[in-house]
Amino acid sequence: MEQLTDTQQRTLDFIRGYIRENGLSPTIAEIAEGMGWRSPNSAQIHVNALQQKGRLKVKRGANRGIVLTTTSFDCNNLALETAVRIMGIIEKAKCEKELWPDLRLQAAIHTEVINLMIKGVV
Fold first, then answer.
1. Do 99 and 73 touch, CB atoms closer than 8 A?
2. Tens digit of pLDDT for each residue in 10-61?
3. Given pLDDT bands bounded at 50, 70 and 90, which one contains residue 80?
4. Checking CA distances to 86, which of 7, 98, 101, 113 falls within 20 to 30 Å?
5. What predicted TM-score, i.e. pTM, was given to this entire model?
6. Are the beta carbons of 54 and 38 closer than 8 angstroms?
7. In angstroms, rounded to a whole number, what is the distance separating the alpha carbons of residues 41 and 26?
8. Which UniProt keywords apply (predicted)?
9. Mutual orientation of helices 40-52 and 28-35 as an angle, nearest 10°?
10. 6-109 topology per CATH
């Protein structure tokens, strides 16, 4: 997977946070404002780069058409408290690529949700 520049990573983090907080993706103008850029063109350039690197997809013609891909999550950067909140306390749990920080974010990405019921003695 191609590495992101610092600005691309901050842009991806902004988009991820915006979706987590608002339940929908930001517009290009909102990304520019949130990143402190004067021109929406700067935001468009970084969104295009993130799309080329496979970190997000853009639905053509949609006002809020930015969709994060599973490769936009780096489990090494996932905070421990987030992992514990998601997974609960599981002994010897392995961090996989598809580890979702928020259910609203998961719904925004339009992925399948799989329920797992574990029966046993704690």
1. yes
2. 999 999 999 989 989 999 999 999 999 999 999 999 999 999 999 999 998 8
3. very low
4. 7
5. 0.60
6. no
7. 15
8. Hydrolase, Protease
9. 110
10. Arc Repressor Mutant, subunit A (1.10.10)
Instruction: Tokens for 32, please give them.
Output: 């520019």
Q: Which residue has the tokens 């004067």?
A: 38
Domain definitions of the chain by residue range: 6-109
Contacts 24+ apart (CB under 8 A), 22-28: 23/104, 23/107, 23/108, 24/64, 24/108, 25/64, 25/65, 25/66, 25/67, 25/108, 26/64, 26/66, 27/63, 27/64
Kindly state the tokens that stand for 61.
């013609």
| C-alpha closest to that of 51 among 34, 66, 36 | 66
